[in-house]
Amino acid sequence: MSAIFQALATGAAFLVPVVIVMILASIAAVNRAEAEAHPHGADHEGAPEGGAAAEARSRLPFLPDREPSVLEILILGVVLFTLVMGGLLVFSLLGQA
């Protein structure tokens, strides 16, 4: 029974960082969309066009200036899944040796 819990703990150790990165990317995307939806901000009616959106983009250089397509999201998911499963396989093979 302890081998099952050890396997679950190993899988969780690989997947928890992936989930954290996904949550942070989601938060950043929502904040960027919110900044683009309200470019002047709540307090500044006379602010220059795109000030909040430009500031949000400058803080998040890893996000593209456009919305990702569904195909790009699916490819990213497959790549992340493959990397995690490959890491689990390598860890399993190293544990057997």
Task: Write up this protein.
Helix content is 74%, strand content 0%. Helix 1 (2-37) runs antiparallel to helix 2 (51-59) and helix 1 (2-37) packs antiparallel against helix 3. The chain has helices at 2-37, 51-59, 70-96. The chain has 97 residues and is mostly helical. It has one domain.
From the alpha carbons, calculate the radius of gyration and give it in angstroms: 20 Å
Report the mean per-residue pLDDT as an integer: 77
Oligomer: single chain
Instruction: Report how far the terminal alpha carbons are from each other.
Output: 21 Å
Helix fraction?
over 70%
Judging from the principal axes of the Cα atoms, what is the shape? Answer: elongated
Q: Work out the count of structural domains.
A: 1
Task: Estimate what percentage of residues fall within beta strands.
Answer: under 5%
* SSE order: HHH
Write the layout of secondary structure elements.
Elements: H1 2-37, H2 51-59, H3 70-96
Helix pairs in contact: 1-2, 1-3
Summary?
This protein is mainly α. It is built from three helices and no strands.
